[in-house]
Amino acid sequence: MGVEAVVLAAGAGTRMHSALPKVLHPLGGRPLLAHVLDTARRLEPSRIHVVVGAQSERVRACFADRPGLSWVMQESRRGTGHAVGKALPAVSDDATVLVLFGDAPFTTSDTMTGCIEAAGTGVALACADLPDPYGFGRVLRDGDGHITGIVEERDATEAEKAIAEVNTGVLAASKPVLLDLVTSLRPDNDQGEYYLTDVVTLAVARGLPVTGVPASAEESLGVNDRAQLARLERIHQRREASRLMAEGVTLMDPTRVDIRGSLRAGRDCVIDINVVFEGTVALGDGVHIGPGCVIRDSSLGDGVRVESMSSIDGAAIAAGCRIGPFARLRPGTDLAESVHIGNFVETKKASIGAGAKANHLAYLGDASVGEGSNIGAGAVTCNYDGVDKHRTEIGNGVFVGTNATLVAPLVIEDEAYIGAGSTITTKVRREDLAVGRGRQRNIPGWMPPAKRKRKG
Ligand code: UD1
Ligand code: MG
What's this model's pTM, rounded to 2 decimal places? Predict the structure, then answer.
């Protein structure tokens, strides 16, 4: 008998007050739903059904790269029980059904497995004791400790609200049992919805075993509003920081680094405060990241130093490079070993050869720079003519003087020199000096107008 997961993700997320469906709100840079699906996949269920409703196309599009998901449409959202009822026809008759909530990203695979194993001929649900159970369904038990039902916050009496044990939302039962119970649900509650939680009372009435599977408080947390989202984000970041430190990374302050995606780091990296990593980032050994940097979808080789307030996006940076402070590396930047990119330098679609330097105030876009070349302060590649982009190709050992304006398309061959302040529009041959600027004129004894007036 196989396991099939049913993930509920159709809710509008009213309490988020958002144009984005709740399950697409990011946690650690990935949609809430992605966390649940990844954990569910670890159990290797025979199928995963996802119930969608609010902006279903948008949710499906977000997971288009995950083949094999079974999408179920819940046109009108009439509660969690109604959502499960919509999915059940797609589930095999001999399957054990594992119900998961798309807004509870920390649910562990152990808890999921625990519920599947405990379901038997009845129902198993994961329960947790919370210091602040506000908003959750409370677990009701009789004098012998047997579960008798679940009451939602808004339907609960004051005495029931004082119960600390909550329903996490993870539930398992065989398909026939769940189908029978879900078909019997009635919307007689404060919201007029078909509550999945009412299957517990129904199961007890039918004499079916109901088993509570203990879950941790942290994994039970769900996202219903922005404050809860922020709280879960901090927990996720704390976990990521602990993982990095356990792998040999020094974090100057583990509470002031954010990983929104996946970060792999070698040994002895040092990450200063307020650094944000986005997408997929890989750091070699001994990489040093200064305070206030943002690094997205990039790889940084061994011993790279990034000084404060630099922004790096879509860049491949080889060992020994020095970046910043205040550098901006944009997508398509490819730095060979030991390149220096200094303050207020911007690069885009630029390959820079080993040991080359652009230390101050330059723009290198749609460009290649050869080994050991030096790009002076204020040098700019003029890559855009208003319609098309053009390339600037700079050879090895080239010296580009301060404030040079390099009008692309342009080739500057090896060992050439570009005079400071030049506007260069045509090819510069190997070892030539190109000077493209007005000649200096000195006018002897020149008097400014004010001085002339005074002299009468
Ligand atoms: C639910 C539980 C509550 C539990 C809590 C745990 C019910 C009635 N209540 O409350 O006992 O303590 O989760 O987090 O089950 N959804 C649909 N279709 C619908 C309604 C909801 O797919 O018609 C989805 C939502 O997208 C969400 C999940 O079901 O992912 C839970 O719905 P939500 O409205 O967040 O329920 P809670 O109030 O959190
Ligand atoms: Mg919820």
Answer: 0.93
CA atoms within 13 A on the CB side of 301: 13
The minimum-distance atom of ligand 1 relative to the CA of 8 is 22
pLDDT, tens digit (0-9, with 9 covering 90-100), for 260-296: 999 999 999 999 999 999 999 999 999 999 999 999 9
Q: Distance from the CA of 101 to the center of ligand 1, in angstroms?
A: 7
Q: At residue 455, does pLDDT exceed 90?
A: no
340-372 pLDDT, tens digit per residue, is 999 999 999 999 999 999 999 999 999 999 999
Residue 340 annotated as catalytic:
no
Quote the ligand 2 centre to 314 CA distance (angstroms): 36
Burial class (CB in 10 A: 0-12, 13-18, 19+), 396: middle
**Gap from CA of 184 to ligand 2 centroid (Å):** 23
Residue 441, C-beta contacts closer than 8 angstroms, at least 6 positions apart: none
Given pLDDT bands bounded at 50, 70 and 90, which one contains residue 190? confident
- Spot the catalytic one: 49, 340, 360, 390: 360
**Facing residues of 105 across strands?**
none
| 104 Cα nearest atom in ligand 1 | 14
